[in-house]
Amino acid sequence: MPRATQTARKPKAPSKTSRVKEAVPATKIADLWLGQHLRGLRKMHELSLEQLAERCGLSVGALSQIERGLTSPTMRSLRRLSEVFNVPMSQLFHEGDYPPVEELGRIVRAQGRRVLSLNTTGVQKELLTPAVSGALEIYLVTIAPGGSSGPELYTHKGEEGGYVMSGEMVLEIEDRTFILKTGDSFRFKSQTPHRFANQTQAETVVVWTNVVG
Predict the structure, then answer these.
(1) Tens digit of pLDDT for each residue in 56-66?
(2) Measured between alpha carbons, how far apart are the two ends of the chain, in Å?
(3) What are the distances in angstroms from CA 56 to CA 47, 62, 82?
């Protein structure tokens, strides 16, 4: 019987994902990650680029380039930023492997969330959305017993809404006060004076959405 011939297999072309990974050097991924991390901290502090520039002494242009991963900040710049954000320098350095480049700006893994703990008010905010340019911001807000957004009503641009996952929250909007319990949800214009508080003895957890604009 004639010997069966084997057709040589062509080498499998690299996937689009692998080509992207190979095209982006590790130093660039590090700059992109740090830029998004710093942007996330700025957004959680509700600061514009202009306000942050005024507080840290860097130019708006320099901060914009850092946030977009176009340039690496100096240690002096990082120290200034850590002081403004009231976080240790160590929080600005990534531990372990960086996320895949195709996930940057799209995916937030549970262990990669930006966390802001406001100990003076008893509020912790975790940013669930990637810290890139965009109107939508989703936070996991944990309010300790007795915690609040502060004694005064405040305003900012945009619209917001949320869902109370557990506990109870007092929500003040202008001259109205609402008691929201587990399973309740809300929405209002952010330009309307508002504040929130937890007046119970148990922790309250809220998924909070802000649409900036």
Answers:
(1) 999 999 999 99
(2) 76
(3) 12, 11, 9
Question: Residue 127: beta bridge partners?
Answer: 114, 139
How far apart, in whole angstroms, are the C-alpha atoms of residue 190 and residue 97?
38
CA angle at 86 for the pair 76 and 109, rounded to the nearest 5°: 95
- Residue 194: beta bridge partners? 154, 173
Q: Do the Cβ atoms of 171 and 196 come closer than 8 Å?
A: yes
Q: Distance (Å, rounded) from C-alpha 75 to C-alpha 57?
A: 14
Q: How far is 169 from 56, CA to CA, in rounded Å?
A: 35
Residue pair 98/171 in contact (Cβ under 8 Å)? The answer is no
- Read off the pTM: 0.67
Asked whether 69 and 32 are in contact (CB, 8 A), the reply is yes
DSSP symbols for 66-112? HHTTSSPPPHHHHHHHHHHHT--GGGGS--SPPPPGGGTTT---GGG
Q: How many CB atoms lie within 10 A of CB 189?
A: 12
pLDDT in tens, 52-109: 999 999 999 999 999 988 888 887 888 899 889 887 776 677 665 667 878 877 888 8
**Cα distance between residue 181 and residue 168, in whole Å:** 4
Cα separation, 204 vs 180, whole angstroms: 10
CA distance 115 to 127: 7
